[in-house]
Amino acid sequence: MExxxxxxxxxxxxxxxxxxxxxxxxxxxxxxxxxxxRSFVSTxxxxxxxxxxxxxxxxxxxxxxxxxxSLKTWTYRILTNTAKRRGTxxxxxxxxxxxxxxxxxxxxxxxxxxxxxxxxxxxxFPPAWPTPEQGLLGAEVxxxxxxxxxxxxxxxxxxxTLRDVEGYASEEVCExxxxxxxxxxxxxxRARAFVRGKLEEYYTQxxxx
Amino acid sequence: xxxxxxxxFVEQVTxxxxxxxxxxxxxxxxxxxxxxxxxxxxxxxxxxxTQALRDLPAEGISPAARANxxxxxxxRP
Lengths: 209, 77
Hints:
Chain A is mostly helical. Chain A starts with 6 loop residues before the first helix and ends with a helix. In chain A, helix 2 packs across helix 4 and helix 5 crosses helix 8. Chain B is mainly alpha-helical. Chain B has one domain. Chain B has four helices and no strands. In chain B, helix 1 runs parallel beside helix 3. The termini of chain B are far apart. In chain B, about 25% of the residues are buried. Chains A and B meet through helix 2, helix 3, helix 5, helix 6 and helix 8 of A and helix 1, helix 3 and helix 4 of B. Chain B: Keywords: Transcription, Transcription regulation. Chain B: InterPro entries: Anti_sigma_zinc_sf, Znf_put. Chain B: Pfam families: zf-HC2 (PF13490).
């Protein structure tokens, strides 16, 4: 992360009671933590409470933190544990696999069937998308993406949120969620294909309207 | 074109992007990619999708909760 102090320094400052350092991590991570918490519990309020509880645990435990993992991973682990406990209480648990994780991710009707020339190849190529303005997403696209994420099955949403929205490495995600690398990849793959499909829908509607 | 078809290609994009395909499968994937504009576009759109998600702004916690936590940090023993 640009402009972010290295972990050792950050931890030392937090242990010294440096308020600016605390405000920095609080402001940088709370948004992502809310998104992640929301995947485990049933309401926005619950998610906000999980984040609050997590930060209180961080404040309480930072004095004993020994940098064996990164500060962010440690914080996120507290968050997922807190969120899972609460999710269980609210009877919203994230099951590890389900029927939603099987089957093709692209509508089979888009490919040529057996018995015609070039079976298994596109009938028509996926339509081209408009080139986005450099680094800028329109508000409408952002809303559409958030809605698409909300529509995903929980497990897929947690994984794509951590990997693509928060930028975590696959090993970190497997560790946080206690899932295998193969399982993580399947969930990520299905989630990405779904969100790509939503973007395609959005862009083709935009062109035809 | 080799025996990898488009229907199989689209199911391998994530494994490819993760670098987990294995040498032989990766070779077939890349050969297909070089010859198929549809799959080239599909892969690019998956990349664009991940990029778009990366640019999603996060909503923060409420100002009251933030003030609360700053207070808690200040008054920690």
